[in-house]
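Technical annex B. To support the medicinal chemistry partners, we prepared a structural model of the target in complex with flavin-adenine dinucleotide, based solely on the information shown next.
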Amino acid sequence: MPGEDIRFDPWWWEAAPPVPQAEAPLPATADVAIVGAGFTGLSAALTAARAGRRVAVLEAGEPGSGASTRNGGMAGSGHKAAYGQLSRRYGKKAALDFLGVGIAALEFTAGLIEREGIECHFTRSGRFRAAWRPAHYETMARETDLLAREIGLEAEMVPRAEQGREVATDVYHGGCLYPRHGSLHPALFHRGLLDRAEGAGARVFARSPVTGMRRDGNRLILRTPRGTLAASDVIIATNGYTGGITPGLRRRVIPIPSFIIATEELPAERIRALIPGGRMIVDTRAAHCYYRASPDGRRLLFGGRAALHPIDLRLGAKRLHALMSGIFPQMAGVAVTHSWTGFVAYTRDRLPHLGKLDGVHYALGYSGSGVAMAPYLGHKAALKALGSDEGRTPLDDARFAAFPLYTGRPWFLPLANLWFRAMDAFGY
Ligand SMILES: Cc1cc2nc3c(=O)[nH]c(=O)nc-3n(C[C@H](O)[C@H](O)[C@H](O)COP(=O)(O)OP(=O)(O)OC[C@H]3O[C@@H](n4cnc5c(N)ncnc54)[C@H](O)[C@@H]3O)c2cc1C
């Protein structure tokens, strides 16, 4: 239940709120212009600035006002796309290569945090993926076995009889433990990335929404309410906030809100009793739940699809509280102090995509799994803009398909919401 003085900002912002940036005049030119100052944009900025390019990052709000400071802080090696779906669509080898990108992304982001000395409570906490149905457990066991053999994925199946060591509930049918997955404080990670990108010479311009873009010879001209900027290369890093300046990309990603709550502070032993191993927990429902202890171990942070379209955050808190109490009846009387939301970007094949479309580079479409992937693909997109072959990943071979008949207004999401809930209730 929402507490009396519930707040509608991310709990993460208590430690690291987005810092209002001073309004500096826009430069007339840059080598690389980046649209969006989340993990993708800042990681791209860091790589391009370290390579000696003049970099300008244009951000509609304050840096970090998008999903990058709002997420659950779960750093995984997976995509939303499962092996089975990918191999049916692309064949076995390509599917394995795409999943290998997830492992590379996790190692890249862990290495980045270490190399740059970013203090953001990063640990290899491990993740437990909990099966909502017995059939989900069986599929996971088969795929885990294959992925361990083929791409060296580290994972261990935990049968239902033993799941109590990971999560104190019997609503699940066992699950899979990924010991190398990590956790971090996303707002501190974002702040560290911003600091390192600026330290490398990138300039970040807040409250500078790009409202138009056109080609002029070999340069692109970006229009903002604060003036125009001409750049040799542009990287679009707008993910769930992708808008009308890139209509081709907007037709390829559907923005979907994800919602999270933070509970009131509780004794650490009480939280520990819920998640004894300190893992990140994600379940396999179509409208899935994900939850974890806060880095200080005093709160439960509980996220999920309270709806597939924007709703009032007090209602979001009520729905998530009900879902949390369904898993942990012992939490039914606990108050919610924070309720917030942010947009993720789903693609047709649930894979992230990077490449070049209509003359601009892009990296987006993380489908809800961008904490490790977005910094990695931002880095890769910058390498592409620098003309380096090292920007290549197997994802270059994945077709980035548009959604049929979709131009950017997801009117169908409330219906999809009902469909997902029916699937979870009646099984699939
Ligand atoms: C509630 C929630 C929980 C999540 N939990 C997890 C998790 O636990 N693990 C995980 O892996 N992933 C999670 N995610 C997903 C993850 O947060 C995202 O994939 C990742 O942050 C994407 O980073 P980004 O930099 O690409 O986009 P964002 O951080 O969203 O940044 C995009 C930026 O582009 C800016 N922008 C858009 N249009 C323009 C324009 N025209 N001009 C200028 N600026 C513009 C926006 O203002 C925004 O700041 C979660 C997301 C949400 C919302």
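Notes passed to the chemistry partners:
The mean pLDDT is 94.
Residues 92-116 form the longest helix (25 residues).
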